[in-house]
Amino acid sequence: MGPDYTPPPADAPDSYLADRHRGLVDGATELSEWWKNLGDPTLDSLIQRSLQNNLDLREALARIREARARRVITGTQLLPTIDASGSFSRDQRSDEIANGEFGVRVANTYAVGLDASWEVDLWGRIRRINEAASAEIGLSVEDARDALVSVLAETALNYVELRNSQELIRIAQANIELQEQTVELTRNQFNANLVSQLDVSQARSNLESTRASLPPLKADARAARNRLAVLLGMFPGALEEELRSPAPIPSPASQVAVGIPADIIRQRPDIRRAERELAAETARIGIAEGDLYPRLSLLGSIGLQAEHSSDLLDGRAAAFRIAPSLTWNVFDRRRIRGNIEVADARQEQALLRYERSVLRALEETENAMVRFAYDQDRRDSLETAVAQARRAVELSEDQYRQGLVSFQSVLDSQRFLFGIESSLASTRASITTDLISLYKALGGGWECRDVVLTESPKEGSDP
Q1: What are the CA-CA distances from residue 127 to residues 64, 80, 167, 458 (Å)?
Q2: Longest dimension (CA), the chain
Q3: Residue 453 domain-assigned?
Q4: Mean pLDDT of 230-258
Q5: Within a 10 A sphere around the Cβ of 136, how many other Cβ atoms?
Q6: Other CB atoms within 10 A of residue 11 CB
Q7: Is residue 409 part of a domain?
Q8: Which of 197, 201, 325, 371 could bond to 434 as cystine, CB 3.0-4.6 Å?
Q9: pLDDT, tens digit, for every residue of 186-199?
């Protein structure tokens, strides 16, 4: 009953629009262990532990086991149900013995046997139930893969956020040291009656403003460490000692292979999940249509029955019963037709969700590529700006000592240096997070060898 499932066509553009940008090249990309391309041993260790201990991933794996168990249950509907039974009964009753006299009669009954029932799948309704259950296994597998991709990306993103916060703290502390020297300079100038108290107050205000930026940065670093601990299935704070020391922000390779758009349909777990959902909804149309036709069941029993246990092996103790049964919902056709229409509409919705998931995947990938490319252009400009800002700070301080410029020039150059150095550090972190987002958009890690995910059985196969 119902339509046979055919996977939707894998329609996709021939190439990405963004693959002409810097750092993005054609060619197959290795996604199963993409984080190793960042060359950070600490990140490698965190990823490995998250694969083993992350609670979301372990829950998803448990749902796979549940779906497989349900498939076994539905698969038994194609097989006869056989129950073994054994019983003993003792009856005592008053009965006429002879010549109108009554007495007590005792009767024992021993019985053993087998009872069997089997619904003959005349129209394939039960086979469609098994197809839907098989597709549900695939759906749970792709849910687990989606969780896997998310855990990998979130671990890497939080690690980069931690290193970025530590780098911003380092920059702030370096600027604090510079501004402390400026405060000392203005104080000496004031003591020599060369400048007013205003310059000293402005210098101290600038210093304390920079110091005020430290607490939020430290809070961000602590939050990133806590989040990493939870991703690894640990209590918040468990990674404080391990990740307290600063380390450079991981940098991506100069060139990244991105493959072709058709790879996304094969790799993205959300697309693969949508395809399995479509398969399940297609099978449910056949399940609904099966209610239009009669169901044939075969019932039977065979056994032995005797008054004495020693007589059970006597051929005359054999007993059997065969009872075919035919049921047909002939007066409920309107409800059945409604269920078929519901199943058909749900299949159409599943197809639209599949097509939408493909479009969103392509959009996410294109956007990640564009951000990765343009953030590199931004980094190059910021590196030049930082070099010039440091030179401007040196010149403004020299000219201030010589009385050629006001103290406002020194303040402006120091504030600009702090801001532009922070922007450069954040942009470098953004390039790495852009690459991580790109790997996630490509489905990176979906076939990670460290997590065993068995494929679902083929539609129609028995468990």
Answers
A1: 21, 14, 60, 12
A2: 147
A3: no
A4: 89
A5: 22
A6: 10
A7: yes
A8: 371
A9: 898 888 888 888 98
The reply to whether 168 falls in a domain is yes
Q: Report if residue 113 sits inside a domain.
A: no
Q: Which helix or strand (DSSP H or E) is residue 103 part of?
A: strand 101-120
Q: How far apart are CA 37 and CA 126, in angstroms?
A: 49
Contact 60, 147 (CB under 8 A): yes
> Which residue range is the domain that position 435 belongs to?
17-81+124-293+342-441
Plot region of 27 (φ>0 → left; ψ -120 to 50 → alpha; else → beta): left
Our count of domains for the chain comes to 1
The side-by-side arrangement of strands in the sheet containing 81-98 is 81-98, 101-120, 295-306, 318-327
- Listed in sequence order, the residues at least 6 apart from 51 whose beta carbon sits closer than 8 Å to its beta carbon are 57, 148, 151, 152, 448, 450, 451
Tell me: the pLDDT tens digits for 157-203? 999 999 999 999 999 999 999 899 989 988 988 888 888 889 889 88
> Residue 409: how many CB atoms within 10 A of its CB?
17
Between vectors from CA 394 to CA 390 and to CA 399, what angle results, nearest 5°? Answer: 145
Cα-trace Rg, the chain = 37
- The CATH code of the domain that includes 166 is 1.20.1600.10
Handedness of CA 363, 365, 367, 369 (dihedral sign): negative
108 DSSP β-pair partners:
90
Residue 368 reports pLDDT greater than 80: yes
Tell me the two tokens of residue 174. 């370096």
Contacts with 10 (C-beta within 8 Å, 6 or more apart), sequence order? 262, 265, 266
Name residues whose C-beta falls within 8 Å of residue 162's C-beta, 6 or more positions apart in sequence: 221, 224, 225, 228, 243
